[in-house]
Amino acid sequence: MGSFPRPLDNGLPAIITSRDVRASGLSPERLRAQDLEHLDHGIYLRRDATLRSWQSLGLPEPGHRTLPDFLAALLTLHPSGVLSHETAAHLHGIPMPHAPWLHRDPSGYRTSDLPPVHITLPKGTKRIRRSGVVDHRRKLDARHVTEVHGLRVTTLERTWLDLCALGYPWLLDDLVAAGDHLVKHPWHPGGRLPPLSTVEQIRQAVDQVGQFKGKRLAKDALELVRVGADAPPETKLRLALLRAGLPEPELQCPIDPDDEDSPETDLGYEDCRLAMQYEGAGHRTAEQQTRDVRRDRYAAERGWRTLKANVDDQREGFRSFIRQVRRHRDSWGKT
């Protein structure tokens, strides 16, 4: 009569590794039992376990489609490894370029269906030969390592620097949008919250790392990072206005600075009383539409004009929107 396999320790994670089994004092043969499903080299799923979803962590599905518990198992197999680059950016909630996993270069050639999982390892360690995983072997200062949802990742600031080194699809505007995300004061019904980072903290990380691929691009992008953009389209609208030769608009611009209860507009020119709004998906809720109507009415009562941009404007590089802005400024005698 065959014997039943020894029960697994309840403290083991949902996805275990051969390293977990050895640490529990179990034999390698235990990995062949029916209560485990082989997922990848050295990685097994406990059939009785409940896996964490990205939704349960408050994050969207990542391009690499790898579950959080699989990433945890990968880090168990590589205890000196740290999730980095796009993988860390997703865990930190940094906004990505549109569908970056398509990885189309400027000529339109499709190079990959899904982006890889990025993991950084110390110099001199053995390469990871695993499908869907890209390893980066380099020195990583302990100051640039943190933990998010129980996973070792590069810090916000180091992650942003690593994105600057990736190249396409991480172009200048997307890097500025990511930087704006780090330094913004997130909106909350009870008042704006503290930022995740600051321009100075990012600049310190640049200095700490020294020479790295993408440093010139990182410095250029950092010069354009501003506090006040609540979403990437607002960043891209600001950059489009600047490239058109228009003055830099004020972000989260109060309609009436003397009124402490004054609503703010995404971008504004106080010198010609022009409010600019980007109407994204967040403006479709009844609650937000009510705030928008009241803000627009408040602005109109004080002689402000409101121009609204949407995704179609963004697709055309805000060209027609910029023409409207220029005509309005010209009518006020402003350049």
How is the secondary structure organized here?
Blueprint: E1 15-17, H1 18-23, E2 36-40, E3 43-46, H2 68-77, E4 82-83, H3 85-92, E5 117-121, E6 133-137, E7 145-148, E8 151-154, H4 156-164, H5 172-183, H6 199-209, H7 215-224, H8 232-243, E9 250-254, E10 264-269, E11 274-278, H9 286-301, E12 305-309, H10 311-315, H11 319-331
Parallel strand pairs: 5-6, 11-12
Antiparallel strand pairs: 1-3, 2-3, 4-5, 7-8, 9-10, 10-11
Helix pairs in contact: 3-4, 4-5, 4-6, 5-7, 5-8, 6-7
Q: How many separate domains make up the residues?
A: 2
CA(first)-CA(last) distance: 90 Å
Look at the structure and give the mean pLDDT: 90
Q: What's the count of strands?
A: 12
Helix content: 25-40%
Number of separate helices: 11
Instruction: Give a quick account of the main beta sheet: strands, pairing sense, barrel closure.
Output: 4 strands, mixed
Strands ordered across the widest β-sheet? 9-10-11-12
The Cα radius of gyration reads 24 Å
Order of SSEs, N→C? EHEEHEHEEEEHHHHHEEEHEHH
Strand content: 15-25%
Structural class: alpha+beta
Which segments are poorly predicted (pLDDT under 50) over 5 or more consecutive residues? 103-111
Overall geometric form = elongated
Description:
The structure is a single chain. With 335 residues, this protein is α+β, with helices and mostly antiparallel strands. It has 2 domains: 82-224, no CATH class; 232-331, 3-Layer(aba) Sandwich (Endonuclease, Chain A), CATH 3.40.960.10. Helix content is 33%, strand content 16%. The protein has 11 helices and 12 strands. It has a 4-stranded mixed sheet with strand order 9-10-11-12, with helices on both faces. Strands 1-3-2 form a 3-stranded antiparallel sheet. Strands 4-5-6 form a 3-stranded mixed sheet. Strand 2 and strand 3 (43-46) form a beta hairpin. It is elongated.
